Amino acid sequence: MKLSLPSFLVLGVATAFQAPVAVHRPTSALRVAQEISPEEVAAAQAQLNGNASDSEEESSSTVGLRKEAPAHSKPKSFATKCASLYSPNVGAERGLAPPVYFGSTFLLDDAAHGARLHEKREAPYTDDDGFVYSRWGSPTNEAAALQIAALEGVDDPEKGLGRCLLFNSGMSAITSALQAVLRSGDHVVAPYTVYGGTYEFLTEFADQWGIEVTFVDGAGPQGPENYRKALKENTRVVYTETPANPTMRLTDLEGVGRVVDEFYGKADDKPGTSPHDRVRPYVMVDGTFATPYHQRVLDVPGIDVSIHSATKYLGGHSDILAGSVTSRSEPFLHGCSKVQKIITVPLNPMDSFLLARGLKTLDVRMQRHGENAIKVARMLDEHPMVAQTFYPGLDSHPDRQLSDAIFRSGRDSDDDEYVQTYGGMISFITVGEGDEALRRARNVCENLRVINLAVSLGGVESLCEHPASMTHTMISREQRMAGGLHDGLIRVSIGLEKAGDLVEDLKNALDNCDEDGCVV
After folding, report:
1. Exposure string (b/e) for 388-410, b if CB count within 10 Å is 16 or more?
2. Which of 459, 511, 465, 513 is closest to 489 using CA atoms?
3. 360 vs 356: CA distance, rounded Å
4. N or C: which end of the chain has fewer CB within 10 A?
5. Per-residue pLDDT tens for 264-285?
């Protein structure tokens, strides 16, 4: 007898038995499947396959069945990676935007499926086998993580595959990466000029746990040698931030990776081992200011971990808190994923959705940020009330010999559409010393009319802040000055407004303000 099932039953049965993740399957299809014998299932599958081969158009419209993209269609350019969909497995309906999965828990196929997921609970999750609980990961989180992994370049088998983990803030990402590796008695080398929250963690919390930290001047051509001098037998993390927040100093990452390799030998990650078992320290880079648009740090020999505050440029709209950690090291990813599941938690579904949306415009936003910033920086560099301007695109920048290579390293060599820019962050120092410089810098910030007085950075709107009064107050003045963070330093995040409006706003504030106030 020839079996002919209605098309809706054929689709329901095929979806129920073929879909790779339980959450993707319609519940009605599962109920239908329970009432049909294995022989009928096989016949239904054969009928479906036959129908699919009759018409390519009919096959392409089949709902709930994934069609794998051919290998040659994988985008290579940064702009196309930004705009392309990197989340093919987050819904049977295959919407171009990832669905927001608010559910705290996920339907399992059977007890064996649940056991399998729990056995891999210490590993970074993928959606190949499904999800179990939102504290361990969700499809929406995975969609954004896949996008960042592609932009970081760890989706290329020729260079080595890796993964991205998403956290509920940039500081969660930083602290999770450090906690994945460090134990009591370990040693960390870090630069003087780091984000204030990172400095606070390294000086207060790390000290409580018996972790020793050595701060060095890691900027410029001499930076790698300064790192070398600080290395010890018990060094487990070499941490750097480039461009540095807020001084915009640059680190020679190739040099840092090289001196660490020379001191300890190259990394030898062994699957199934703890990240703490490795002799060579992990080299971690916070590249928040540059983003993968400008520098792909994991392509630099000797660099193990890339960290971003995705709150900033990756999200791009000042409406989320998020952080990312990306690596090719399996032991590190397992350790960091365990910290994430137990201590910090992954990025929530709504912010994951907003991050994925923001990433689609990262290429065009970063280009505009850079085009605006160089115009503002040139005005500041010539203004009589500005003692020094820090912008990597200026010839006056102390690390100018590094900036072209660093800010190009995120691009493929054959990217002929790329126009060299240097990011959207500028710092400058007002004239004067001590309290005079402090008062003048505050007055400049308070008398801007287009640029907003607010902390954070990387959004579409321009922001300014005074680090000595705001983001870096936890650092002593002596430590700040040693790292180049002057009392009169102002940090500006250049947005997407008309460049001329930003230039005029800053020029007016500088022209009319002195240490005693603003002359109107």
Report:
1. bbbbbbbeebbbbebbeebbbbb
2. 465
3. 7
4. N
5. 999 888 887 888 889 999 999 9
